[in-house]
Each structure stands twice: as structure tokens, then as C-alpha cells.
Give the backbone structure.
Amino acid sequence: MGKFIITKRKDGEYQFNLKAGNGEIILTSEGYLTKSGCKNGIESVKINSQIDSRFERRTSTNDKDYFVLKAGNGEIIGKSQLYSTKQGMENGIASVKQNAPTAETIDETI
């Protein structure tokens, strides 16, 4: 089962990582000024991860594939790691779709 892990960055902003059942990070959020904003971001991932058109497939400057997940308003909620193949990226998207809706949230900032 997947897990959302809330942490605090060195700059004081909150972020979350979505980890698959095997512990691999499959999505990393943007920074949030408040913990409640971060938690709202998690809820947005749970909803938007079920809509394929909200995943934007991209290629980095060094030709690695990655994806971003966008909310209904077009804002980026999270970003994947870099993948060496398009199939790896598609597997990552499938993992977010599978894990996000039922993932528990663990707050490591407490």
C-alpha cells in the first residue's frame, strides 16, 4: 500500500512524497508554506491521479522522461523522478494511479 510522507524542507516549506508499497518515491510535491496546504495537495493528488489527462508527460533537458500531475486549475501538484525509458515513465504513472487513492498519510514533521 502506498504512503504520503509529509516532511519539512530546509527552507521551512512543507512537501510530500508519495511512496509505492515497495518504498520507492513515485511523486514529489511542490513546496507549501503551510501544513494544511500540503495536506490539501495530498487530497488533490488522490482525486486528480484518477484522471489520465491530468498527467503531463515531459522530456528533460538530458532526454530523460518524467511526468507532472496537474490539478484541475492547471497548477502542478507533483513531479516524478527521471526515467530512462518511456515505458518506465508509464509504469510510474500507473503506480501513482494505483497507490494514491488509498495511500495513508504519515506526518514526519510532528
